[in-house]
Amino acid sequence: MPDQQVHMRVWRGDASGGEFKDYHIAVGEGQVVLDVIHAIQAQQANDLAVRWNCKAGKCGSCSAEVNGKPRLMCMTRMNIFEPGETITVSPMRTFPVIRDLVTDVSFNFRKAREVPAFKPKPKEADGTRRMFQEDIDRVQEFHKCIECFLCQNVCHVIRDHDENKPAFSGPRLFVRLAALEMHPLDTNDRIELIRQKAGIGYCNITKCCTEVCPEHIHITDNAIIPLKERVVDRYYDPIAKILGLFSAKHK
Amino acid sequence: MAEDKYETHEYDVVVIGAGGAGLRAAVEASAQGVKTALVCKSLLGKAHTVMAEGGIAAAMGNVYPEDNWRVHFRDTMRGGKLLNNWRMAQIHAQEAPDRVLELEEWGALFDRTKEGLILQRDFGGHRYARLAHVGDRTGLEMIRTLQQHAVHKGIDVYMECNLQRLLTDGGRISGAFGYWRESGKFILFKCKAVVLATGGGGKAWKVTSNSWEYTGDGVTMALDAGADLMDMEFIQFHPTGMVWPPSVRGILVTEGVRGDGGTLKNTEGKRFMFGYIPEFFKAETADTEKEADAWYDDKRNNRRTPDLLPRDEVARAINSEVKAGRGTPHGGVFLDIASRRPADYIQRRLPSMYHQFKELADVDITKESMEVGPTCHYAMGGVRVDADSTATTVPGLFAAGEVAAGLHGANRLGGNSLSDLLVFGRRAGLYAAEYAKSFGGSVSINNDQLDQYAHDLLAPFEATGKENPYTIHSDLQQCMQELVGIIRVESELNQALEIIQRLRQRSRQVKVEGNRQYNPGWHLALDLHSLLTFAEAASLAAIERKESRGGHTRDDYPSTDAKFAKVNVVIRKTNGQMTLAQEPLPEIPGDLKALLEEKS
Fold it and tell me: What is the pLDDT of residue A31?
C-alpha cells in the first residue's frame, strides 16, 4: 500500500493558551495515531510534547482526545477514519495542560495516596495463602487497569468541574477501592472514605467511564455499583446498622 | 554554592528508575530507615516492567513439587551458557520464591492452582512449570503492587525527572544531576548512595520491544563515573516479536504462547525447531512431535519441546528459516496456537495477546497463526556488580535489574528478569542503605563538575549545526540493526564503530527547536550521548569475543571457544576512552559444579 497523506490538527500550547496547528504527513500501513504524532515530531515539530511508553496498550501513557473521543493513541488505527478526513488530536480536557498533548495528571496520584493500604489477614495454619481462582476473578478484572485515566477524563463530575475535584476521586479510584474491598485477604475498612472523601455519591452511573475503558473493565457495574451498595448497607440500612455494632466488617 | 543555583534535595539513598528493581530497592532502603528518593523518567507505574507478560520465575514447587532452587540454578546457568556469575544465579534461585510470596502479602493476585496456591506456567529453558503469573499481564500486577506499596510507605517519588549525570567526590558517589521534563529546570540530589535501576539500551536498535526510556543512560552514567561494564556483547533478541504491519514491528509476543502450547512453523507448515536442537540441550529436549506434545501434561516421562529452547537458540533458528526462504513474505515465521488449543483457553491465558493482535494486526489468534520474528529485547550485560551486595566498582553506587550484569551470563531465560528485579532490587536497597548508614563524614558537591554538567545539558540549545536529533537516532538504529544484530562479523562490527564515531560528531551539531519546557527534541538530543555510548560498548565487546555463545553469534567464529568460556569482557573508561579487558570468571564451587554436570 502506498503511503497516503493525511491532514492532522494537533493542539499546541501550554497552560497560558494555545491553538490547533495543521500538519500534512504521510501515513504508512497499519499505523496508529501515535505513529503519526511521532512522525510529525521527527519531521516537522521536534518539540511536540507527547507521553508514550509501550506502544501496545499496556502502559496507559498516550491518552488523548482524537476527534473529540478519549482514546489511547497507540491503539487507535488510522484506518478507522474516512479517507481525506481531518483528524484532530487534543489533550485530555479534565486535566490542566502542561504542554501540547501532555497534561498534569497529578490529581490521580494525590487521590491514590489517600487510599488506605492493603492489610492482609493472618496466613493459614500451614503458612500458605489459599485463594481460589473463582474468588479472585472479579478482583483480577480491576487489576487490569493500566491507569490511562481516560475514565477520569470522561467523568462529567470532574470534566469541566474543577470545583468537584477535592471531594471526588473518580472512576479510576473506585476501581482501586473496589479491588481492595473485594480482595479475599484484605481486612481494612474503607467504606467511610468511599462515602465521604472519595465522594461516590456524586456518580450517577451514566457509564461514560465504562465506555472508554481500553481494558474493557466494567467500571460502573462491577466496581461503582457494588461500592454504592456497600455504602448504603452501612449507612442507610437500619438493620445492618444495628448488626454492624456487633461485627467487625462486611466483606 | 550549588544549592543556590539549582533546586537541591538531600537524601541518604537515591534510586534512579522506578521499574520493578527500582521500586523494590526504594521499598527496602526506606524500610531500613534511611531517607530515600525514587526518581523516574516517566509517570510512576509506566516503566518497562509494566509491559512484562509471561511471569516471574521462582522454584516454589506449586505445580511440580520436585522443583527447587538447585534445578532453577542449573537451568539459569545452562541457559546463560555457563557464563553467569554463579553466586548471583544461586542467590536468585534461592530467594525468588520469597520475593514472589512477599508480593502476595502486598496485595498481588496471581492466577491459582486447584489447591488455591500460586499457579506456575511453562517457559523456555525451565525444566518445570515455574512462572508465577497473571494471565499475560504479570508485569502490570507486579509494578502496580510495588507502586502502591511504595506510595503507602510514604517514599518520596520524583516523576518525569530525568537524571543524566552522577556526581562523585574523591571517587565516591556524592549525588546525581538532571532535569525536570515538565519545566526543563535542573535538579540536584546530594546523596550518599545511588541505586541504578535504569534498564537497558534496546532503543539503539530499530526493531525492538523497548520503549523510549531504554537509552542506556544507567550504563553510561556508571561508566562515566568510573564503574566497570561487563558482558556488553550479549544482547537478547526475543524470538517472537510482531512483524506485521510495519508500525508494530518489534512489539513483544509473549513466550507464554509457546509455554501454553503454541508452536513455531515455517511456510511449509513444518515445526522447524526439531531441526535446531543443539548438542548442549539434546539430552533434555524432545526429538519427536509426539514427545514434545506429551511433555505439556507429563514432564516426568517426556522431554521439553524444542519450541521452548532458550531464546538465543529459537531466535537464531527463526533467522535461519527466513534466510533459507521458508519465512513469510513479511520476513517472519508462523506461531500457531489456534490449531492446538481451544479458543476460550487462549482467551483466558493470553488475553492481552488476543487483544494486541486483534486491534493492531487484524488477526484473531484463536483462529489464525501469528507472524513473528526476532526483536531486540534485553541486555544481559551492563554494570559489573558484587554478587551479594550489588555494589559496583564505584563506592556508593549500586545497580540492580537489567542495568546490572552477571546473573544471566550469555543469555537470559524468560521469567528470570522479573525475579531478578525483585531479588536484586531488594538487595540493592538493603546494601545501599547499609552503606549510607556507615558512611563517615558529609557529602560534598564538586561545583566545577556540576557547572560543567549544566553546561553540557544546555549545549543543544546553543549548537550552531542543523542536525535533527531524530534523524541521528534513526541512523543509529539502522546501523545497529544491520551491523550489530543477531549474526555478527568482524568487518561489520568495525564498520558499526566507524558509523558510531561519525554519529557522535553529528550529535554535537544537533539543533533543538523550542524552549526547555517538556521538549522531547531536547530530551532526545541529550539521550544520544547514552545511546551512542551503549552502542559503542556493545560493538567493542562484540569484536573482542571471538566466538559464538548465547546472545552473541559470530559468523566468522561460529562455535564456542573454551578459552572464552572462562572470561568476561570488561569495559572501563581510561582517560576518556573505553578500554577493554578479558577478566576471569569466578570459580564455581564443587557442589554447584556437580549440579551443572548432571545429565538432564
Answer: 95
Q: Is B258 annotated in the active site?
A: yes
Facing A128 at nearest CB: one of B117, B137, B513: B117
Question: Which helix H or strand E contains A111, and what residues bound it?
Answer: helix A106-113
B33-44: average pLDDT: 98
Q: Which domains does chain B have, with CATH numbers?
A: 241-374 (3.90.700.10), 447-584 (1.20.58.100)
Please say whether the beta carbons of B550 and B237 come within 8 A. no
Please say whether the structural domain A106-244 has been given the CATH code 3.20.20.140: no
pTM of the model: 0.96
* A4-103 homologous superfamily: Beta-grasp domain (3.10.20.30)
Report the residue from A32, A57, A118 with minimal CB separation from B355.
A57
What digits encode the pLDDT tens for the residues B171-189?
A: 999 999 999 999 999 999 9
pLDDT in tens, B296-326: 999 999 999 999 999 999 999 999 999 999 9
Determine the Cα–Cα distance for residues A168 and B156; give it in Å rounded to an integer.
24
Chain B residue nearest residue A127, CA to CA: B101
Write down the catalytic residue from B92, B137, B149, B238: B238
pLDDT-based confidence at residue A235 (cuts at 50, 70, 90): confident
pLDDT in tens, A152-186: 999 999 999 999 999 999 999 999 999 999 999 99
What ipTM goes with this model? Answer: 0.95
Q: Is B360 within 8 Å of A43 when comparing Cβ atoms?
A: no
Q: Chain B closest CA to A140's CA: distance in Å?
A: 7
| Interchain pair A53, B211: CB under 8 A | yes
Domain ranges of chain A: 4-103, 106-244
Which residue from B minimizes the CA distance to A60?
Answer: B46
Mean pLDDT, residues B392-420: 98
- Which residues of A are less than 8 Å from B41 in CB distance? none
Minimum distance, in Å, between the CA of residue A204 and any CA atom of chain B: 28
CA angle B387, B389, B390 (to 5 degrees): 70
CA dihedral B292, B294, B298, B303 (to 10 degrees): -20
| Per-residue three-class SS string for B183-238 | CCCEEEEEEEEEEECCCCCHHHCCCECCCCCCCCHHHHHHHHCCCCEECCCCEEEE
Cell of B176: 546525581
